[in-house]
Amino acid sequence: MTQPRPHGSVRPGGRTARTRIAVLAAVLEELEHDEFARLTVERIARRSGVHAATIRRRWQTVEGVLCDLLAERSRTTIPVPDTGAFRSDLRALAESIAAFHGVPRNEHLLSSVVAAAARDPRADTVLREAFGERLRYVSTLVQRAVERGELPPETDGEEVIAALGAPLYYRLLIVRRPLDDQLVHTAAEAAYHAAVAGVFTRA
């Protein structure tokens, strides 16, 4: 079976690129109202104006489209704060995560890709790579804190960010309840105090 072309391999502005933009936008619009279980190639085709056969030829399945969408949005979603202080950086990051997932289409996209990952190896790979890339990128705020002398030199930045995000994604994906200000506060404070105490230093 032919695999989908990697992002960026098509001619910018060409017909294939326009098709991809239309399909990914259609999926986001569908996820505004419904979750993954109700998403079908036919619904994507109707909303995007792209023939269902074209969608199946390029992405094969709904899971394939979700993989592409997650890979695209993981590059452009939540900014890395730079407030000048580690504690406020963590708080700002937690607030941004909560704000992003407070939008129904974003919340549905995350839960949809997690569901897809359980049955499609490509979705599983994209999910792990997207979160891994995000952890590495956002951990730069921890490195800045180390350079300012706020944290021990051997602090593992990825572990700090994972600890910040864990209670937020547990609430979203396991408990299935909205993120609130209290959780944002406790997640940021817990990660901050643990990092300052040296909990995340590399052995």
UniProtKB/TrEMBL annotation:
InterPro entries: Homeodomain-like_sf, HTH-type_TetR-like_transc_reg, HTH_TetR, Tet_transcr_reg_TetR-rel_C_sf, TetR_C. SUPFAM superfamilies: Homeodomain-like, Tetracyclin repressor-like, C-terminal domain. It comes from the Bacteria. PROSITE patterns: HTH_TETR_2. One of its GO terms (molecular function) is transcription cis-regulatory region binding. Keywords: DNA-binding, Transcription, Transcription regulation. Residues 40-59 bind DNA. Residues 17-77 form the HTH tetR-type domain. This is TetR family transcriptional regulator. It comes from Streptomyces cacaoi.
